[in-house]
Amino acid sequence: MTFIGTIPVNEADRELGQAYDTLQQAFGMVPGIFQSMSLRPDLLQPLTLFVKRLMVEDHALRRSTKELLAAYVSQLNSCAY
Hints:
Blueprint: H1 14-27, H2 32-35, H3 41-56, H4 63-76
Helix pairs in contact: 1-3
């Protein structure tokens, strides 16, 4: 059940659609945490770029290493997400 109004992927307009496309390419889906920001694509767009550069692109660490670290920190914090 959704408590926050969201715009589904198949109903996204141009700006929101671009953000959703970036997330689809990065994660193979649009995670719900990002869909919760769908009513403000002007804020979602820079966030998707930030996440892509931080977590997806390889820089000092490979993506797999960053994801492993994120999962470990989530476990330490008892975070189910």
